[in-house]
Amino acid sequence: MPFKPLVDLDPEKLKTATKNLCDVFGVPTLRPHQTETGENVLKGISTLLDIPTGGGKTLAYWFPLFYYWAPGNTDPACQKIILLVGPLSALMQSQALSLTQKGVPAIAITSTTENPEQVLKVGHIYPQKTTYINFQQAIGENKYRVVLVSPEMAITSKFQDLVLSKKSFLQNIISQVIDEGHCITEWGNDDFRPEFSKLHVLLARLPSGLPVVVGSATMPRDVILDILAKLRLRADCARVSLSNEKLNIALSVRILQHPQDTFADLMTLFPRDSAGT
């Protein structure tokens, strides 16, 4: 079942997606790299998102979803899915809870989840509820807009059988996100979390042509080349990046001229016109 990218993007839908995303997450506007990444996904273009920590990777991840859907939308044709693989179970659980509280149905399934193929308690995500649902119905039958999984869970036959083989899931997934993509290189080895180097197995089980977004703040050229090789992505994969350069920060080395306990050498850190203020 191949992924069907959009040839032309609707300007009005892009505008509405931006507004809804900003309203839900409480930000005044989206940054260019967020909209560029999101539009790449909608067009079926896999993208390396290389931006500093705090640069807003997650809004770039969710933008394609909001092009089709907004909280409260029940139209079956709009119930798209973002699948995210991340390295930290606690962080993904926190993200799932935060998304759900904002009206975006989300669930995190990791190697620490007890009996995921059995009955899951929605109270893990909705603390105020005690309803019980089946794992297969919840994810495989498209009950969540964002599904977060660990690499260990993502490549299991269990996840393949209960989620990835379900027609409703395959028809509605629009993006595979790999967060903290540098872990593919730094962790994916025989000594520590080898599943990171085997995520191509997951990609092979997803619809052909599905766009992949690999996000990180640590992707120098050698890491990028390794990521592309291990995920078996095209060498000319699109790249959206921001510099880590901080123009308001500088390093200076000075020889101490005064006794250390006087702190007199610190005076050079204060502007000359700041005396008496």
UniProtKB/TrEMBL annotation:
<dbReference type="GO" id="GO:0005524">
    <property type="term" value="F:ATP binding"/>
</dbReference>
<dbReference type="GO" id="GO:0005694">
    <property type="term" value="C:chromosome"/>
</dbReference>
<dbReference type="GO" id="GO:0005737">
    <property type="term" value="C:cytoplasm"/>
</dbReference>
<keyword id="KW-0378">Hydrolase</keyword>
<dbReference type="GO" id="GO:0043138">
    <property type="term" value="F:3'-5' DNA helicase activity"/>
</dbReference>
<protein>
    <recommendedName>
        <fullName>DNA 3'-5' helicase</fullName>
        <ecNumber>5.6.2.4</ecNumber>
    </recommendedName>
</protein>
<dbReference type="InterPro" id="IPR014001">
    <property type="entry name" value="Helicase_ATP-bd"/>
</dbReference>
<dbReference type="Pfam" id="PF00270">
    <property type="entry name" value="DEAD"/>
</dbReference>
<comment type="similarity">
    <text>Belongs to the helicase family. RecQ subfamily.</text>
</comment>
<dbReference type="GO" id="GO:0003677">
    <property type="term" value="F:DNA binding"/>
</dbReference>
<dbReference type="InterPro" id="IPR011545">
    <property type="entry name" value="DEAD/DEAH_box_helicase_dom"/>
</dbReference>
<dbReference type="GO" id="GO:0000724">
    <property type="term" value="P:double-strand break repair via homologous recombination"/>
</dbReference>
<dbReference type="InterPro" id="IPR027417">
    <property type="entry name" value="P-loop_NTPase"/>
</dbReference>
<keyword id="KW-0238">DNA-binding</keyword>
<dbReference type="GO" id="GO:0016787">
    <property type="term" value="F:hydrolase activity"/>
</dbReference>
<dbReference type="GO" id="GO:0009378">
    <property type="term" value="F:four-way junction helicase activity"/>
</dbReference>
<feature type="domain" description="Helicase ATP-binding">
    <location>
        <begin position="38"/>
        <end position="237"/>
    </location>
</feature>
<keyword id="KW-0413">Isomerase</keyword>
